[in-house]
Amino acid sequence: MNSLASLQALIIDMDGVLWRGSEPLPGIPEFFAFLRERDIRFVLATNNSSRTEAQYAGRLAAYGAPVALDEIVTSASATADYLTSILPAGSRVYAIGLEGVRQALSERGFTLAEEDAAAVVVGIDWHTTYAQLKRAALLIRAGAIFVGTNPDATFPAPEGIIPGNGALLAAIETATSVKPIVIGKPEPLLYQQALRRLNTPLERTAALGDRLETDILGGIRAGLKTILVMGGVTTRAQLAASAYQPDWVFEDIIDVVREWNAE
Predict the structure, then answer these.
(1) DSSP for residue 183
(2) How far apart are CA 192 and CA 187, in angstroms?
(3) What phi, psi does 178 have (nearest 5°)?
(4) What is the pTM assigned to this prediction?
(5) At what angle do helices 75-86 and 189-198 cross, to 10 degrees?
(6) Could you report the per-residue pLDDT of 222-253, keeping only the tens digit for each?
(7) Distance CA 111, CA 170 (A)
(8) How many beta carbons lie within 10 A of that of residue 145, not counting itself?
(9) Which residues pair with 10 in a beta bridge?
(10) Checking phi first, is residue 124 left (phi over 0); if not, alpha (psi -120 to 50) or beta?
C-alpha cells in the first residue's frame, strides 16, 4: 500500500501544482490524460476562493484538460455550505472576496450587505482596501461571525511569493482579537467533501499539493496518503525541517506521472 500503483484516487490542489499565478506549469494535458487512462478518480480541491468552479473548469479546458464541475471543490463553495448550516436562509453577510466568494454566497441565498451582517466572510481579494478591513472589523466587534475561506499566508505568483488570504485574516484578527473560523485546508471540510464525491477507500486516496502547512498537513489530518510537488511555495529546506512529512515528494506533475508509470 506504499506504492503509487496502489492508489485509486487523488485530491489535487491547483495553485502551485497545475499553475503558478497566471502561468500554467508543464504537463497538464498529459497528467489528466494519464489519470483518465488509468481510471484514477480525482477531485480538484483548492483553497483559492477567487474563482468559481466554472471558471476553474474553463481554465483547465483552455490548458487541454477538460474537467466536470463536480470534479472541483473550492474553499468559497465550502464556506457558503458551512454558513447554510449555521445561519438562517437569507441572512446578511459582509464579504471580502472576488467572484468565487460572492457567487457562492449568493447562490445559497445569502444577502451581501455592508450593514447589520450576521457574518463576515474573508477570501482573497487582490484589491482589498483599508476601508474594507475597517468595515469587517467593526462588524465583527458588533457580533458578526468571522469566517475565513482559507488560511494560506502566501500565494505563488509569477513575480514571486505574495501575501495570501491568511495575511488578510491576520490583519482583521489583530484589529478585533477574534480568531476566524477557517474552512479551507488544513481544516478537514474540503477533504471531506472531496472524499464523499470520490467514494474511494481512504487508504487508496492521496492528497496532492505544493504546501506543507495546508495540503500535506490537511491530508495527514484526514488520514490520506500525501504527495508533495515542489513547483509551489515549499522549499527543500522547509521540507527537511518539517515535523510532518509527505509519503512522496516529486518535482512536478510530470515527475509524478513518470514515477507512476515506472511502477
Answers:
(1) -
(2) 10
(3) -115, 125
(4) 0.88
(5) 100
(6) 999 999 999 888 999 999 999 999 999 999 99
(7) 25
(8) 19
(9) 42, 206
(10) beta
Distance CA 29, CA 160 (A): 25
Q: Which residues are catalytic?
A: 13, 15
Give dist(CA 209, CA 232) in Å, integer: 9
Cell numbers for 148, please give them. 475565513
- The identity of residue 185, as a single letter, is K
Q: What is the C-alpha separation between 3 and 261, in angstroms, rounded? A: 11
Q: Distance between CA 40 and CA 21 in Å, rounded?
A: 27
Which of 152, 160, 167, 180 is closest to 74 using CA atoms?
152
DSSP E strand stretches across the chain: 9-12, 19-20, 23-24, 41-46, 72-74, 92-96, 111-112, 119-122, 145-148, 154-157, 160-163, 181-182, 205-209, 225-229, 248-250
